Write the structure tokens for this entry.
Amino acid sequence: MGKGTKYTAKTPDENGYIHYTEEEDQIWHELITNQKKVLPGRASPIWLEAMERMDFPEDRVPQCKEVSQTLREHTGWEVAPVPALINFDKFFALLADKKFPAASFIRTREEMEYLQEPDIFHEIFGHTPLLTDQRFADFTHAYGKAGLNASKEDRKYLAALYWFTVEFGLINTEEGLRTYGAGVVSSPGETVYSVESDEPVRKPFDPVECMRTPYRIDIYQRTYFVIDSLDDLFDVANQDMMAMVEEAKRKGMHAPNFPFDDLPEEKQERFKRLLKEAS
């Protein structure tokens, strides 16, 4: 989701097969083999077990069709290849239909460590493993249905909930703090930062508080929310998410805890308003 991208989507052929180059397959190989070295002791055991269920190839970019076959066997979900960026209408509609949108391009070597927009590695490696867990799948499905008919303003609050759970969520485990969010597990740098750095604030999970918390998409997160179990997300799936949105709107947004003077003027003004409202 977003307004612009420098990448070009890869279009499936008549058989649903996406043709990747040898260089693109090599980039996938380097990304997945490196990340598999970084994640033990930092990613949740639940996520690592889910990754094993997916059994991703290491020598090539996996095809959406084969990933879908595994997901269908576990929770009935599928992967839908999409352009690099899609609008909220399409995004929520796909989730409500139990189809996870996967941008079909893969990053260049210049952006191996960090990519602001989602690519096929982030989408497939980061997102699809936990969709084999029924609790997480049900949360994502309920989230899609909630957003399908939500207003533009309400979707901003829902986006924050998604950001602090599906993308950048942390989880308490018997072994200590671990990550399960796709934005973290697909980023070697943020994998380490999210669970080991003293810099970010880590808060107990509260869906309304997630919705009230500002974030930036182009830096390591300054705030993380920590669940105790995927049951916490399943519980949200069985509640009225739009009621949570209304509560978040009544309480108002928190002040941002990150720098923003390097952002475009429009975004700077937005965060300045948040600071003023929160003071």
Remarks:
- The beta strands are 78-82, 99-103, 170-173, 176-179, 201-204, 223-227.
